[in-house]
Write a structure and sequence with these properties.
The protein is mainly α. It folds into two domains: 326 residues; 118 residues, Cytochrome Bc1 Complex, Chain D, domain 2. It is 68% helix and 1% strand. It has 18 helices and two strands. The longest helix has 40 residues. Bound molecules: heme C. The site of heme C (HEC) has 24 residues, from helix 14 and helix 15.
Length: 478
Amino acid sequence: MDFPIFHLDFIGNRALIAIIAVLHAVINHALAVGLMPVVAMLEIKGFRLLKTNPELAEKWDALAYRILFVAFLITTTIGAMTGVGIWFSASLVNPASIASLIRVFFGAWFVEWLVFVTEVVLILFYFLTWKKLKANLLQKFKHVKYGLFLSFFSWITMAIIVSILSFMMDTGNWNNDRTFLYGFLNPVYLPQLFFRTPLAMTMGGMIAMFLTLIYTRKDLEFRKVALRSISKWVLIWGPLAAAGAMLYYYMIPKSLVGNLPVAMGTLEFQNWYSQIVVIVIVAIGLVIGMANWSYFRPQTAPAWLAGVSILLVVGLMGHFERLREFIRKPYVIGEYMYSNGLRVEDYPLLQRDGVLKHANFVASKEVTDDNMLEAGRDVFILTCSRCHTTNGAVNPMTGKFTDMFGTKPWETAQLKGYIKNMHSARYFMPPFPGNDRELDALCAYIKELQTNPQPVSGAQDGLGFNKPKPSQPVAAVR
Ligand code: HEC
C-alpha cells in the first residue's frame, strides 16, 4: 500500500495484463523458442548438402531464410514490445507483488536481462548476416552457429521466466526458508518447463509447416522433402507436449486444482469444463493428424488446415495462461501475498487497524460519519479493484451483487454478511482485509454504486493524489 493504485474501471486491470501477456507468450513460444531451432535445423540441412548438391542446398537455405524473415519481423517488434509490456503493466497494476518478486529473483532477473539482450543481438546478427556469410563453407558454418546460439538463448530466457511464473503459483519450501534456490526451484518449475518447452517446439514446427506449404507451392518435389523433416519435428514434440501437460497438471498443488473448473471459464461457465477438455483433445489431435498427413501425403496437405490447427493451439495456449493466472487466486504469490497486493502476514495488523491507516494514497486514514462514501471508495480501490470494476465490462461489482441479491435496494446486512465471508464463499477471493468500520464504509459505497453508478478512476487520473476536503462529495473528487 506504499503505491498509488492504477485502475482501469472499464476493462479491468487483469484484462490489460492478460491481453499483453498472452500475445507475448504466444509470440515467444511459437516464433522465438519454437521456430528458431526449426530454422536452424533447415539451415543445417542445406549446409550439409552444400558440397554434394548445391542446388538443393540453396532451396533449403532459401526456405529457412524466408521463414526466419517472418519470425524476425514479429519477434523484434510486437514480441519485444509486449515482453517489456508485461512487466510494465504488471508493475502498474500490482507494484507490491512485482517488488516482492524482484527481491526474491534479483539475480535471476539480472541474468535474464543479459540473456535477453544477447538474444536480441543474436537475432539481428542471424538475420542480417544471412546473405553476407555465404561465400564459403567456413562462413556458412559460422552463420549456422549463430542460429544454434540463438535457439539456445531463446530457450534460456523462457526457462528463467517460467521459474518466476511457477513461483507465483506455488512458493513451496521458500515460505519456510526464504532463499533464492528454494524460490527458483519451486515445485511447479520443472513440470511447467517440461510442458512449455515441447509446446513451444510443437507450435514452432506448425508455423514452419504452414509457411512451407505456402512458400513451396511452385516446387512440389522440394515441398515433399521439406515437409517430411518438419512434420517429423512436430511428431516428436507434439506427444511430449501432451505428456508435459499431464505432468504439469499432476504437480499443481491440490488447492489450486480445486479452482480449476471455475478457472476454465468463470462462474457461469463452470460446466464448460467438459467442453474445454474436448477442445484440448481436438486441438492436439488435429496437430498430430496434420503432421501425419504432411509426413505421409505431403503433396496433398492443405495449408488452411495447418492454419486452423495453429489457431486452435494459440487459442488453447491463451486459455492455458488465463487458467494459470486464475488458479493461483486468491494469491498473487502463493500463500505469501494475496492478489490485492497485501501480504498474508500483514492481515492481522490490517484487520485490527484498518487498511486505510496503512495506505499512503487515500483521502482519509479513518472512517468517520462524514466520509463514508469516500472512505468506502478507497477501501474498494484497496481491497477489490485488482479484480473488479465498479460497473465496467469485466467483473463489475454492481453486476455481481445484482446477480446475487437482485435489483431491489441491497441491505447493508446482506452485503456485510457476504463480504465478511467472501473467502469461504469463493476461495479464489482473498478475505476482506479491513476492519469493521471500513466494511461499513465499503457497503455504503457499494449501495451508492447501485443507485448511482459512477466509474471510479485510478491514480493515473489523480485518485489518491488530489486529496479532497472532507465536505466534498465523492462524485466531485473523481
Ligand atoms: C483476487 C481477485 C478478487 C478480489 C481481490 C476480489 N474479488 Fe470478488 N470475485 C473475483 C472473481 C474472479 C469472481 C468471480 C467472477 C465470475 O463470475 O466469474 C468474483 C466474484 C465476486 C462476487 C460474486 C460471487 C458469486 O458467488 O457470484 C462478489 C459479490 C464479489 N466478488 C465481491 C467482491 C468484493 C466486495 C471484493 C472486495 C472486498 C472482492 N470481490 C475482491 C475475484 C476477486
